[in-house]
Amino acid sequence: MHILVVASQKGGVGKTTISLNLGLAFARAGQRTLIMELDAQGSVGLSLGLADRARPGLAEVMTGAEALPDVLQRTRDPQLQVLLVGRVDPATVGGFEEALTRGPVLSGILGQLRGEFDVVVLDCPAGLGRVTTRALEAGTHVLTPLQAEPLALRSLGQILALVDRVRAEKNTSLTLLGVILSMFDRQTPASLEVAETLWTKFPGGIILDTIIPRDETFLEASLRGAPLLLMQKRPPPLSRLFDQLATDLLDRIEPKTAEEDDGPI
Ligand code: ADP
Ligand code: MG
């Protein structure tokens, strides 16, 4: 089971949007996929139109009030399920985070999912605090969205340093899948300049070739609580983009051997 951590230093850079659409693209590629919401703000639920605050989730599993299989929610795609934070009062987010980051809680929950899913996507809250750190300790791979803006290099440096630290101290097998430029606006010369600096400074494929453009459709989809709908009435380039990204990342996660490759001969 691959555990893909979607994390970044900054908020509002597209972590949840990427977790959802990429998770759906993994499911469409035949992977049994779970999107797990670790952000107590509940934006995965909101974006899916599942934001029923009364519905139990991760918080209730941690108190022992619910069993994990009972709080997994099915979606319209039979290969995709979601696990939301559950009943977390915005005033007690600290308590939720404390419970989630206590000892081996998160890795224990992930352990229970082993065998049930091929890919688990962990949608982290903004920042490099204890939740993101725990997720990196429990994960197998990390993907970090980055907006091409003047402070991008600094925030990228911070997450790369955290990934290095976690790898050195706790999780030697954690693999950086890459940095994905998100909400990219080709019309803005400053964005292009930042992107060029990044490509020059980080050769070797760290900055992924796929770029997520700034597109109103994402905003519209999360307002309507319907990324699945987005995938149905999607403008073709956007859906192809996530399907291609899913295929590329799966190739990096599980490189095909020569025998598996359906070559011409
Ligand atoms: P994060 O999880 O990093 O805080 P979100 O994915 O929730 O970021 O995105 C923040 C807001 O920006 C949301 O309203 C979302 O719909 C919108 N958004 C995300 N990605 C894009 C994009 N590529 N183009 C336009 N709007 C986007
Ligand atoms: Mg988010």
From TrEMBL:
<dbReference type="Pfam" id="PF13614">
    <property type="entry name" value="AAA_31"/>
</dbReference>
<feature type="domain" description="AAA">
    <location>
        <begin position="1"/>
        <end position="175"/>
    </location>
</feature>
<dbReference type="InterPro" id="IPR050678">
    <property type="entry name" value="DNA_Partitioning_ATPase"/>
</dbReference>
<protein>
    <submittedName>
        <fullName>Chromosome partitioning protein</fullName>
    </submittedName>
</protein>
<dbReference type="InterPro" id="IPR027417">
    <property type="entry name" value="P-loop_NTPase"/>
</dbReference>
<dbReference type="InterPro" id="IPR025669">
    <property type="entry name" value="AAA_dom"/>
</dbReference>
